[in-house]
From TrEMBL:
Database matches in PANTHER family: ABC TRANSPORTER ATP-BINDING PROTEIN MG467-RELATED, LIPOPROTEIN-RELEASING SYSTEM ATP-BINDING PROTEIN LOLD
Protein name per UniProt: ABC transporter ATP-binding protein
Domain ABC transporter, chain residue ranges per copy: 3-230
Cellular-component GO terms for this entry: membrane protein complex
Family, similarity comment: Belongs to the ABC transporter superfamily.
Gene Ontology molecular function, alphabetical: ATP binding; ATP hydrolysis activity; transmembrane transporter activity
Alphabetical list of SMART domains matching this protein: AAA
Protein keywords: ATP-binding, Nucleotide-binding, Transport
Tree of life domain: Bacteria
Length: 232
């Protein structure tokens, strides 16, 4: 198992004003799974993703990733963890506007040893022709695919996406989801997406449904649909 949450609680505020964004959450994720954390705004799903990504720490409980309990790590250790284990895909791409698509991806080499080749990754996401384009010269879908290529440049074990198709139209979102599903199956990446879109959950190996900070349901799709099979 590559990810384990054990009795995780995340509180904000103090004493009488304390609010539990995540309330006693436990689940496991196997390596190479395509997982969707599903829920409406305020369900606690993004807080779970932030703790898994090492950007936040639990108030109590354990977050174990690839055999290491990251909930007890200091800031430097968490920085190394994020650099080595996690690839982030953001809703609004977070590309550097003054850099070309190639440069946005190649920048990872200055952060991580053994980063993957930027041209190889542009080819993987089907954007070799956009090598010298700046973000403003690309569509939203193209920018998101560059964002995925940048996340892959670190060669991470886990890809985390927070509403990665939320800013895209349905047709472009399908292209991005197809790419993520392909990476999961062909490169054996563990892909974990947070979304409020129940249709995306039909493509997942495992679905973790959250509401009001708690897990309401965990289930497996024995025969997950390909992205093209879903009626968007």
């Amino acid at each position: 198992m590559i990810v384990e949450f054990k009795d995780v609680v995340k509180e904000y505020g103090s004493k009488e004003a304390a609010f539990k964004a995540v309330d006693n959450v436990s689940f496991g994720i196997e390596e190479g799974e395509f997982v969707v954390i599903l829920g409406q705004s305020g369900a606690g799903k993004s807080t779970v993703l932030n703790m898994l990504g090492g950007m936040d720490v639990p108030t109590s409980g354990s977050v174990i990733v690839d055999g290491a309990d990251i909930s007890g790590m200091n800031d430097k250790q968490l920085g190394n963890y994020r650099a080595e284990k996690i690839g982030f895909i953001f809703q609004f791409y977070n590309l550097i506007p003054s850099l070309t698509s190639y440069e946005n991806i190649a920048l990872v080499k200055s952060i991580v040893k053994g980063a993957r080749d930027a041209d190889e990754l542009l080819k993987l996401v089907g954007l070799s022709e956009c090598r010298n384009k700046f973000p403003a010269q690309m569509s939203g879908g193209e920018q998101q695919r560059v964002s995925i290529a940048r996340a892959l440049a670190k060669n991470p074990k886990i890809l985390l996406g927070d509403e990665p198709t939320g800013a895209l139209d349905s047709e472009t979102g399908v292209i991005v989801l197809e790419l993520l599903q392909k990476l999961c199956k062909e490169e054996k990446r563990t892909v974990i997406l947070v979304t409020h879109n129940a249709d995306i959950a039909k493509c997942a190996d495992k679905v973790i449904r959250m509401k009001n900070g708690k897990i309401r349901e965990i289930y497996r799709n024995e025969n997950p649909l390909s992205v093209k099979e879903v009626e968007w």
